[in-house]
Amino acid sequence: MTTRRSTLKLLAAGSLPAMLAMPAARAQQPLLRQLAIVVAFPAGGATDAVARLVADGLRGKYAETVIVENRVGGGGRIGAVHVKNAPADGSVMLFGPAFPMAIFPHIYKTLPYDPLTDFVPVATTSKGAFALSVGPAVPASVRSMADFVAWTKANPDKATFGAPPGGGQHFAGALFAKQAGIPLQMVPYKGGAPSVVDVLGGHIASVVTPLPEVLQHVKDGKLRMLATTTERRSPFTPEVPTMKELGWDVVFQDWSGFLAPARTPADVVARANAAIKEAVASPKVAAALQAQGTDVDINSPADFARLHRQTWERYRDVVRSTGFKAED
């Protein structure tokens, strides 16, 4: 208890300023020595690119050193398991798209992690849609989705699309093929970047992939973007129609975000959320994300948790509608 007598003693000893400064000192938590951002997909893809942008914004703000680790394999499962088993102290976080958390529970009979209990949502950074694009394996005369549908029916042995198996791209392509009644076969890839390399090389007919992974190739005339999976036309590609407006109920626009191991303290999660929010909202990172064709979308941990569960439930219904059978 601080009394008038004790206060006078502190003043006399010169200790009151230090006492008053104590709460502020506690609020200014020291930087972590290192943050490892785990990306479960190959370097060069859209997820990796966004992770590195945010890492630059967190360096010196949240941790002294911020590194991006690409732990590729299992369609994202290897990276997720690594973070699940990491220390719950804010020093290791998973960054990635929704599908390893929202889709995999509905397509694999066994999964080495529980998306809803083994992780705590920290912050979303963006939401992104997919685009169906065709490359040189498809005749230059194919300029629209109607042309593509006709071409696939006439060339069923060549009608392919590349996507990571079990991802949102996979189900966007499968749902489109089912609704359009076309023989479009998926060719599996570990990530979007390798599939784009192959469509550019004419090894596959098309790709369903996040907009940022193909946007520059479309601008350069190397790929033709025929449709997007947005609810409304993307501001980044206003000339490209949505699948919805063309008559197919194929709307996929999912979150990308950071998740930490379960049992990470709430104050650590809140601090990480604030740092990520500041990094993503900075002019440099926001401009870079927009230049890539990514919509900035930042949520609080509580809002992200609700969104996470809603996405999990939505994909449960999507998987059922395609008739996809669980594996493993």
Automatic annotation (TrEMBL):
Q: Which UniProt keywords apply?
A: Signal
Leader sequence residues: 1-27
One Pfam family this chain carries?
TctC
**Which PROSITE patterns does this chain map to?**
TAT
Checking PANTHER family in the record gives: BLR1237 PROTEIN (PTHR42928:SF5), TRICARBOXYLATE-BINDING PROTEIN (PTHR42928)
Q: Which family does it belong to?
A: Belongs to the UPF0065 (bug) family.
Q: What is this protein called?
A: Twin-arginine translocation pathway signal protein
Which species is listed as the source? Ramlibacter henchirensis
Q: What is the lineage of its organism?
A: Bacteria, Pseudomonadati, Pseudomonadota, Betaproteobacteria, Burkholderiales
